[in-house]
Task: inverse folding
């Protein structure tokens, strides 16, 4: 291989390194993306490098890396068979790995994708769509509303003999320690709802922990009287149910009831998905719809579509990704990806022209700006524009 080709590939390696660090000039952006878009092989390899770097950074919270270990890791993943497929020399593999290692060594978040001069939309910082956060509204029994993200820590309200507190970590808890000896005859209900771009953590009076995803709600009693504990949800929620064998815990959602005694599970009941998914992590649950009932085992997921239930092995990482603060895509279609973006970033999504079928796999932090995810999708030949709070997806 002549020196010109070696120097050229080392130049690309240097551009990739600076791209990951966010240090490219506009001219260098154009140079790098001209190379990326010159062939499918270049695009695939560049995408692989980014994915390898993302995998490391997302699971180490961007701490400093041991470079020798990281180099071995990247070499193991970028196998020689892949290099043969791309028709590239092993020196290029080492150069590409070196670009990744340099960024790993200084702890650079590899997901910080920058758009290039050739992108359909060049997003300026003052026009960025920022990620969501802890946002929710609590509606009390008398109809009054408390904006939780604006409420101070401490006592928020009293509902009968129950004190509602906002803890120092932002969690809202119904304090069963302040219950009086007499229980009220009538059941009072509260509702917690999250907007698009919001999530929240709630502790019910029985000690059950509930995490609400964006654009979701839960209606629940201030106290669990009688012989059952029943709540109603919309959207998506993850439950860690406090065990009480004398009072089954029931979650009602759009024609389905999940019944448990004490366990960990996730229910995804977004109306626009047309598929209620219940994923079991621990214990056992009973799924009911109409006169049918099914038992779920840990690692299984039920699907309720058009009144019929099916049970299959679950992608546990995907089901719990939102609670862990990441997007996790496993051969997800463009509409599925954009639905999640719409909910978390509080944006509307439109489609323009004929969008070819594309699938996306990988994991990325939910703390990045929307354009950083969308820029990564460009390597699947998906383009976009942003105008206000609307993202238009284009071929």
Result:
């Amino acid at each position: 291989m002549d020196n010109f080709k070696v120097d050229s590939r080392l130049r690309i390696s240097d551009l990739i390194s600076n791209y990951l660090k966010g240090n490219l000039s506009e001219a260098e952006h154009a140079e790098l993306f001209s190379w990326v878009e010159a062939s499918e092989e270049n695009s695939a390899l560049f995408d692989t490098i980014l994915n390898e770097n993302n995998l490391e950074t997302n699971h180490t919270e961007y701490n400093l890396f041991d470079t020798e270990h990281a180099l071995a890791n990247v070499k193991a993943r970028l196998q020689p068979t892949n290099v043969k497929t791309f028709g590239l020399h092993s020196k290029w593999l080492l150069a590409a790995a070196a670009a990744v290692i340099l960024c790993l060594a200084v702890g650079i978040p590899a997901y910080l994708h920058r758009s290039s001069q050739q992108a359909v939309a060049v997003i300026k910082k003052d026009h960025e769509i920022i990620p969501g956060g802890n946002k929710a509204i609590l509606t009390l029994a008398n109809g009054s509303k408390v904006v939780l993200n604006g409420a101070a820590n401490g006592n928020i309200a009293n509902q009968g003999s129950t004190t509602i507190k906002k803890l120092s970590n932002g969690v809202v808890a119904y304090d069963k320690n302040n219950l009086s000896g007499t229980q009220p005859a009538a059941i009072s209900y509260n509702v917690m709802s999250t907007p698009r771009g919001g999530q929240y953590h709630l502790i019910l009076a029985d000690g059950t922990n509930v995490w609400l995803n964006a654009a979701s709600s839960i209606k629940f009693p201030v106290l669990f009287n009688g012989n059952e504990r029943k709540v109603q949800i919309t959207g998506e929620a993850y439950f860690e149910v406090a065990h009480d064998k004398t009072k089954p815990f029931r979650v009602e959602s759009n024609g389905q009831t999940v019944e448990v005694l004490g366990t960990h599970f996730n229910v995804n009941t977004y109306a626009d998905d047309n598929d209620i998914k219940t994923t079991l992590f621990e214990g056992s649950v009973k799924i009911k719809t109409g006169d049918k009932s099914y038992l779920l085992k840990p690692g299984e997921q039920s699907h309720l579509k058009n009144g019929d239930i099916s049970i299959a092995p679950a992608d546990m990482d995907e089901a719990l990704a939102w609670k862990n603060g990441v997007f996790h895509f496993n051969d997800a279609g463009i509409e599925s990806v954009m639905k999640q973006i719409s909910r978390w970033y509080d944006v509307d999504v439109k489609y323009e022209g004929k969008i070819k079928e594309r699938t996306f796999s990988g994991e990325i932090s939910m703390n990045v700006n929307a354009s950083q995810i969308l820029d990564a999708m460009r390597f699947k030949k998906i383009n976009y524009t942003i105008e206000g709070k609307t993202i238009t997806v284009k071929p």
Notes: Residues 3-105 form one domain. The chain has three domains: 3-105, 133-319, 326-394. The chain is about 25% helix and 35% strand. The radius of gyration is 25 Å.
